[in-house]
Give the backbone structure.
Amino acid sequence: MQYDPIKRSLGNVFNKTPFLRKMFYGLLDLLLLRAWHVHKELKQWQRGAKADAQILDAGAGYGQHSYWLNARLPKSTILAMDVKEEQVEDCNQFFKSIGSGEQVKFVVGDLTQFEHPNKYDLAISVDVMEHILEDVQVFKNIYASLKQGGMLLISTPSDQGGSDVHGDGEASFIEEHVRDGYNIKEIEDKLRSAGFSKVEARYQYGTPGKISWRLSMKYPILMLGVTKLFFIILPVYYIITYPIAYLLNWCDVMFTHKTGTGLIVKAWK
């Protein structure tokens, strides 16, 4: 199934006003389990962070993580990079409209060729590395771009079915991936080979998360792929299913998992 057309349709709905864009970000933070895990790690990082931290959002997408960071660290400077020109333009317009255009800049760029030596205190890469074949080169570039002691935070699918490729006879739920997911030791070794001195990795999307993801994301997207009329009944669907998904998300974030379809990885320079 192609994921990008659905994302574009949602973007067209929520990009009409800044209020709708903020509401969209809020919904993503509620629905996407990866956002729960990423926010957990960012809150921990923020405790020791400088108020005017330099941050790289490596593969910014809709810009929801840059928005979350800017709201909590308004004096920080964020460079958000993405390969999609229309999303970069869109995000720049939005951040200017809310008065954050000086603090948050979006640029079109290729992470395999990007390097700003010793500039950033934090780099985040959420649902990006599974799309990039030359991953070690990206890790080397980010390593070079971090200050000493700077941290890279990655959220990416694992090889335990992260692209939903091991069930239901599906080829892949998200066909844009260049790899199904990372083996936990593989990504640790690649990051160390890129120069990182300390690496920590853990599973996300354990059993509770896998169930929640199907309820809150996979099934609605599949139905929207069949007919846009599902937008009409989507609110009713979430009223019924979201309380269950919320509890499952909480369990996934609070407990340690021996395996899972996603990985949270932290690496320090």
Observations:
- Residues 165-173 have pLDDT under 50 and may be disordered.
- The chain has nine helices and seven strands.
- Strands lie at 54-58, 77-82, 104-108, 120-126, 146-157, 198-204, 262-268.
